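Quick one, T. Sequence first:
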Amino acid sequence: MSLVELSGLVAALCWTITSLMAPKLIIDFGIFRFNTLRIVMSSIVLLLIAMVTQTFDASLWAHKGQLIISGLIGIFIGDTLLFSSVHRLGPRRAGVLFATNAPMSIIIAWFIFDESLSYIELFACALVTSGAMIAILYGKRKNLVENSKATPLEETRGNLWVGVAIALSAALCQVFGAILSKPALLAGADPMAASAIRCTAAALALLIAYNLYFHKQNKTALFSWKAISFTSYLGAFATGFIGMVIGMSILVWGIGNGDIGIVTTLSATVPVLILPILWITTGQRPAIGAWIGASLVVVGAALIVLY
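Structure tokens:
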């Protein structure tokens, strides 16, 4: 396996780590405040990298409008919804549902670009959808001990199907964000600089939304900034750096330098990577339904991108 192909697996590992770190940090910061902090930190790092490497060029600015909209849809809305689903469903089920962005891409291309679906693609879409449903309905162990440290990562907060709808919406936003950023990358824009534009647009939108609405509505229900430990701030920075700066950038680099089918297939292994890590960190073996569902999602995603 070459370094280019390995980039997809590295990206999947990055997103798996951030998904497992997020539940505790969301409790400390709150969903919206946590996402605002991590995206602002990530945008600063990406801007510094782009300025030091001098990768802001004409091909980038020619597509700045599309990249800004891409950041607003894919990161501002998409990431906020994703971490809301992680909080509601836990990282395993949220990860499985988010992997449905693969069949969503096929369906959207069918409607927008009039691309026909092959029988293999239809079968793959069915595999991903059925895998997600199996993981949701049969993926939790019945004998999960209430006081177990696995409970916060597996419990459902609020209505199950509300969490499912939020996770699917996050996947849909990610698809539209990717579609809007594609022309700039095809024109030769640097992936890190394009990520910096997208992330900065999302960061500004998150800051405006937080100060105008969210802070006033939730200031009595959340810990004050001073009450949150320095460790939690480091954790928020780590999730942004690992997930956005490293994970997102290395995936774009891999797609630009290698076989898109192989790289994307490896990046879709998040639902499977999360299972052994959950087993190790919590001491609770995932149920057989979780393994079956995650495997179907990965097989379906592989069929979509390879055929």
